[in-house]
Amino acid sequence: MLTSYSDWPGLAQVYEYRINRIHTKTGESTHHTQYGITSLTPQQATAEDLLTLRRNHWTIENKRHWIRDTVFGEDASRARTGSIPQLMAALRNAALALLRFAGYTKISEATRFFAVRPKLTVNLIS
To answer: Could you list the mean pLDDT of each consecutive 10-residue stretch along the chain, which spans 126 residues?
Structure first.
């Protein structure tokens, strides 16, 4: 068992994830192998369970990052010193959460809507 070779706290499983992609325009094929660790035992999570957990995590992460970058311009932000980047990320996450909680699914449309109606944004937090 690979976990017996490591003293990583809580390590229960080591897994290998293989990615094979074919670029639709060029037909070029790429292959990647990634490795992961988890505190879930084999009894708690099978290989299929780990794959589902991994895919769900990255679906959420990619969706949130894409919105924060393309709608809120996070990667273009000039705030890079002290605690300002973390504060701005927290504010962007709060804005995103408020919009989603209010039922908006198209965040870019909602952002444009509220950008020209700043007084209505108060309704999101009240």
So the answer is: 79 92 93 93 95 85 82 86 90 91 93 92 85
Q: Side-chain half-sphere of 58: how many Cα atoms within 13 Å? A: 5
Reduced DSSP (H G I as helix, E B as strand, rest coil) percent helix, strand, coil of the chain, to 5 = 50, 15, 30
Distance CA 114, CA 118 (A): 6
Question: Measuring CA to CA, how many Å separate 125 from each of 46, 77, 110, 113, 114?
Answer: 42, 25, 15, 16, 13
How many domains is the chain built from?
2
pTM: 0.54
Q: Are residues 80 and 38 in the same domain?
A: no
Q: Which domain holds residue 80?
A: 46-126
